[in-house]
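<derive_structure_tokens>
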Amino acid sequence: MLFISSATGARAAAQTGVNPAPRLVGTWQLRGEEVRRADTGGFEPNQSSDKSIGVLVYDDAGHMAAQIDRRAWDPQSPYVAYFGTYTVDAAAGVVVHHVESSTNDYKGTDQKRGFELLDGGRTLVLISHRPGVVPTVARLRWQRVN
């Protein structure tokens, strides 16, 4: 796994005035994802699965890396990986991934995710709003590994 320098992570946190949340620090394993239509709340066909595998890592210096493998069921978006720094606004329940590089079009962007910690911090749910012809809301459920 590739990480950028800790000075970069500290600089990113200092620029926003928000420090990484200690409760997010660790390694997380993807346990499932669901995508629902923003207008009706109904499931989007062929966009939800418990067959995806993935890993998400947050370190205490403000770095993050994510990999998601959907090849078992999603030919349109079979593999996504990205890394960079992150900042957290715990009061708003938002983590922002500041993407340095990625396998898709995330490079140089800030990926804002709502988050919920459940089961005493053993489960992390990341929530993203996806624009499109039919806007959707994706919820990825992660289980703490360490």
